[in-house]
């Protein structure tokens, strides 16, 4: 499973977490092993009216289909389609909260039509992917971020850009490392270890989500902005469910 959410967070197929704040179109995950690509997934983010990064669109090519997803509007081969849409091994479902795509070739995609996208691939694609989701070789860090010395997540992300002659977007500056953050640990730890998540702590690497939550809080300079807290907590809950866990009721009237 590879996912991206919230404040430009990414988790690769091999379980690396990193942040990459690019607003161009990028290769999120593609089959790069053979001359004939089974699939490719491109994404582009933009800032929404609250100045938070959201996924503007997803461009998915599966065999000979081209699927263009915008919030609530799936377009297949240039035509807007009604969901559920089914055609030769491709199923698209959509409701007010999620858009889901399942391909018989071994791919499923779930997008919350805002900031969070999760892609699950069949193990037959192991060692053959490229893009922001990494190479799916089962080894963390190797082949993604170590490549002759100093190779950070911004450099890595910029390499995944889809070059379009008409695109007007700036590459994030590779010399500007994302600020590290050591504050807000107590608050993030408290949220992620609450009783609602008892079933999740054994299934996921808690520390990585605590770090992501701390980065969110620092980026929002401690303001009580729901996006800064809720996006990583939501992702933790989604990943927990996906790993077979049962998160309890953690949302309240006043929180998220």
From TrEMBL:
Residues 1-170 form the VWFD domain. PROSITE patterns: VWFD (PS51233). Keywords: Disulfide bond, Glycoprotein. It comes from the Eukaryota. One of its GO terms (cellular component) is extracellular matrix. The keyword Coiled coil does not apply. InterPro entries: Mucin_vWF_Thrombospondin_sf (IPR050780), VWF/SSPO/ZAN-like_Cys-rich_dom (IPR014853), VWF_type-D (IPR001846). This is MUC2 protein. The gene is Muc2_1.
């Amino acid at each position: 499973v590879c996912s991206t959410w919230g404040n430009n967070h990414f988790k690769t197929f091999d379980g690396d977490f990193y942040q990459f704040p690019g607003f161009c179109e990028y290769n999120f995950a593609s089959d790069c092993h053979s001359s004939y690509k089974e699939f490719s997934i491109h994404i582009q983010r933009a800032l929404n009216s609250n100045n938070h990064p959201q996924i503007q669109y997803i461009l998915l090519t599966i065999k000979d289909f081209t699927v263009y997803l915008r919030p609530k509007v799936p377009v297949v081969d240039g035509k807007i389609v009604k969901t559920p849409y089914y055609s030769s091994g491709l199923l698209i479902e959509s409701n007010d909260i999620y858009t889901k795509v399942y391909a018989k070739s071994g791919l499923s995609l779930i997008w919350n039509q805002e900031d969070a996208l999760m892609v699950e691939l069949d193990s037959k694609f192991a060692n053959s992917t490229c893009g922001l989701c990494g190479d799916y070789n089962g080894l963390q860090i190797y082949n993604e971020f170590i490549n002759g010395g100093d190779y950070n997540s911004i450099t890595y992300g910029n390499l995944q850009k889809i070059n379009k002659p008409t695109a007007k977007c700036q590459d994030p500056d590779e010399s500007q490392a994302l600020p590290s953050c050591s504050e807000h640990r107590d608050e993030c730890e408290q949220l992620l270890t609450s009783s609602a998540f008892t079933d999740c702590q054994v299934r996921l690497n808690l520390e990585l989500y605590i770090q992501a939550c701390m980065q969110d809080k620092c980026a929002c300079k401690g303001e009580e902005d729901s996006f800064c807290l809720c996006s990583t907590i939501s992702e933790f809950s989604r990943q927990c469910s996906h790993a077979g866990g049962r998160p309890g009721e953690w949302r309240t009237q006043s929180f998220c």
